[in-house]
Amino acid sequence: LDNTLFARIIDSLSIPMCVLDACDLTLLTANAAARADAAFWQCSIRCSRPVAEPSAGTSTGCAAYKVLATHTHAVREHTRTDANGAIRTYEMHAHPILGSEGNLIFIVEYMLDVTDRSRAEQSRRESDERFRQVAENAIEWIWEVDTDGVYRYCNPMVQQVLGYAPEEMVGQKH
Question: Got the DSSP string for 94-147?
Answer without folding.
Answer: EEEEE-TTS-EEEEEEEEEE-HHHHHHHHHHHHHHHHHHHHHHH-SS--EEE-T
